[in-house]
Design brief:
The longest helix is centred in the middle third of the chain and has 43 residues. With 673 residues, the protein is an alpha+beta fold. Strands 1, 2, 3, 4, 5, 6, 7, 8, 9, 10, 11 and 12 form a twelve-stranded mixed sheet that branches. The chain contains twelve helices and 23 strands.
Length: 673
């Protein structure tokens, strides 16, 4: 039976190998600190954190996430260690919440490797604290126990580590923040929270403030009111509902859902919804498919999620598929890890007994251990294959039904393209998949207007499939990727409501930029040389300043006559060629302040070459979402921490669809003007 602890209560631990699961309503940082009998941390090497996730007997997550799993092996800890503290902290320097009192109470559970829960603790009563010691595993008279601590610190990790006697507390806290910031730069948008909706569980999406955009407010709590925008391009609100909140909002997910396989009935639909979730959502759509025969899984239908429009239902359904794939893969990986750990322990027991180490008895024990391992892995694979079969069937019906903003460039919907009258909810930037389910591609959707710029990295010479691409081809592919993204943005915005500028100091991107130049959809020809760089950056910086003053002064309607209120995108190629320190500072300013006032940044550059600017460039790098022109498994979700392989959304070779779409955009703009 699980011991539900309250603050200060302890519970004995009968197992040496443990897993500590943390669930929260927002991405948090987890760490584990080793200390002596008096509770003092001797050195930075006694702390496992995202920058150093593995220490003797400890392993923690490498990034900020809403769900974490920490591995602890008490037998592998150094002899001088008497306590293991589980530390939680809110990421510093982001746009997320800054105190635990503004988020759902974190939930911490200590489990065995078989998933059985030993003790749990809900950290209630937190207010201004931004870091907290959640649990403590401690050794007393040779036996280990767990204690619910719940000690919070308003000064964050630096104050927490200082209180535990670590001399280098502030330096380590800064290193942890830096490691988390690097993780956020390669993080994919989280799926929206979900609610039960018949056989599948879906919930209304929230505006795009995911891990790539820094979500904040908790469910039901009033969030900060954004400044009024003169662009009129805010996410639509739901009639009769409060203002939408971040995808990080809402109660914590079920702490056992990540490692438990799907329902026990073979062929049953996936349903990992938390039984206690009570979130308001629009009414479910009417059924469009006949009910499934008894014992058979429900037939997938495009748009079977909740939402007020088909576009919103498809958006929710796509992220529901993302969540299903993440959970079922996490369950499979956890089951395989448990099977391997169990086999290792059984083999270790065989080898530790000299009487059974050799001979027929030892051989039989080893064969039995391998057989049990194979049986557990086969059972886990069977559950995974069942879930993947359903997700594959759903992907096959959802992909053809997607609107242009969500569809791949090879989708026939583009052949019937007409410039829209309204801004869509989201935009597709590519596809995501996991190695266990290579066939299933989940569209990577980000909400509009963009809340964060993009960095298309042209410096990687290899992809996740092992193929090699030389530096010249990578630069060309990176620029083609940027053009495809820019064309999609131009296509999904109404005529005259999106403007693209290009900086190409050396003219090296002339060939990939040709579709944009030929069709006349650019605001002006690509800027060349240092003078062109200074001119474009000066005009866009001045534009941000002007709109910022008007909005913050409550005079958004007092902008000069003829002022272009459309969303602006700046594509920068060949950085840092042609850029001086002033231009770099202007780029940083546009990346930080621009999105809130209608100016967005798309960098096409090699991260290694750009590192010549040193620390000056690091904030710019961290503030942009890194994408790649070739498949790369660099993106991580902030939920269970999977490394997702990202594939860019490129135009098929030889296709004229890009030229046709941009020609219609140019014609509509001419008519509009």
């Amino acid at each position: 039976m699980t011991a539900e602890l309250v603050r200060g209560q302890n519970h004995p631990l009968s197992q040496a190998r443990l897993e500590i699961r943390v669930s929260a309503g927002t991405p948090i940082v987890t760490a584990a600190a080793l200390s002596d009998e008096s509770g003092r941390i001797h050195d930075v090497e006694w702390v496992a954190h995202p920058g150093a996730p593995t220490q003797p007997g400890l392993e923690v997550s490498r990034q900020a996430a809403a769900d974490h799993r920490l591995a602890v092996d008490l037998d592998a800890l150094p002899e001088a260690v008497h306590r293991v503290g589980v530390l939680l902290a809110l990421p510093a320097g982001g746009a997320g919440p800054v105190r635990f009192g503004a988020v759902a109470a974190p939930f911490v559970a200590v489990t065995g490797l078989d998933g059985g829960e030993i003790a749990s603790y809900t950290l209630t009563g937190l207010d201004t604290e931004s870091a907290v010691v959640a649990l403590e595993l401690y050794r007393r008279q040779g036996a280990w126990k767990v204690r619910a601590v719940g000690q919070g610190y308003a000064g964050g990790l630096a104050e927490l580590l200082t209180d535990q006697g670590l001399p280098q507390a502030r330096q380590l806290a800064g290193g942890i923040d830096e490691a988390v910031a690097r993780g956020l730069a390669r993080s994919v948008q989280a799926p929206p929270p979900r609610t039960t909706d018949g056989d599948r569980s879906r919930q209304t999406a929230a505006p795009a403030l995911g891990p790539d955009q820094g979500g904040t407010a908790p469910q039901g709590a009033p969030g900060p009111v954004p400044p009024a925008s003169p662009y009129g391009a805010q996410p639509p609100s739901v009639p009769g509902q409060p203002a939408p909140q971040s995808p990080y909002s809402g109660p914590a997910p079920d702490p056992s859902a990540v490692t438990q396989p799907s329902g026990p009935t073979a062929g049953a639909p996936i349903d990992y919804s938390h039984p206690r979730r009570q979130n308001a959502a629009p009414p479910p759509p009417p059924p469009t498919a006949p009910p499934a025969a008894p014992g058979q899984p429900a037939q997938p239908v495009a748009g079977d999620a909740t939402g007020w429009s088909m576009e919103e239902r498809l958006y929710n359904q796509v992220w529901g598929m993302f969540e299903d794939l993440a959970r079922t893969t996490a369950a499979y990986r956890s089951a395989v890890d448990f099977a391997e750990s169990r086999m290792d322990k059984e083999l270790e027991q065989v080898l530790s007994d000299p009487r059974s180490r050799i001979g027929g008895q030892g051989d039989a024990a080893r064969e039995a251990a391998h057989a049990r391992h194979a049986q557990l892995v086969a059972q886990a694979r069977e559950a995974l294959d069942r879930d993947l079969s359903q997700l594959t069937a759903e992907a096959d019906v959802v992909e053809p039904a997607l609107p242009p903003a969500y569809a791949r460039w090879d989708n026939p919907v583009w052949h019937a393209y007409r410039p829209p009258m309204e801004i869509p909810m989201a935009l597709r930037l590519g596809d995501l998949h996991l190695p266990e389910a290579d066939r299933i591609r989940i569209p990577m959707l980000v909400r509009l207007p963009l809340e964060r710029g993009l960095w298309i990295d042209s410096g990687h010479s290899g992809s996740s499939d092992g193929s090699f691409t030389d530096s010249h081809a990578m630069r060309r592919l990176a620029m083609e990727t940027a053009v495809a993204h820019a064309a999609r943005l131009l296509a999904v915005y109404p005529a005259g409501e999106f403007t693209v500028h290009v900086i190409d100091p050396a003219g090296s991107g002339a060939q990939p930029l040709a579709p944009l130049v030929r069709t006349g959809v650019l605001a002006a020809p690509p800027a060349l040389g240092a003078a062109g760089v200074a001119d474009v950056l000066g005009r866009l910086t001045q534009r941000v300043d002007l709109v910022q003053m008007a909005v913050r002064g409550g005079a958004a309607d007092s902008l000069p006559p003829g002022f272009d209120t459309s969303q602006q995108l700046l594509i920068v190629n060949d950085f840092p060629h042609g850029f001086d320190d002033r231009a770099v500072n202007q780029l940083r300013y546009l990346a930080d302040e621009g999105p809130a006032f209608g100016v967005h940044l798309m960098m096409v550059a090699d991260r290694e070459e750009s590192s010549g600017y040193g620390p000056l460039l690091d904030p710019l790098w961290r503030s942009l979402l890194r994408l790649t022109p070739v498949p790369d498994d660099h993106l991580a979700d902030p939920w269970v921490g999977h490394a997702w392989t990202y594939e860019p959304s490129l135009v098929p070779p030889g296709s004229e669809v890009l030229q046709q779409v941009l020609s219609q955009v140019a014609a509509a703009r001419t008519k509009y003007l």
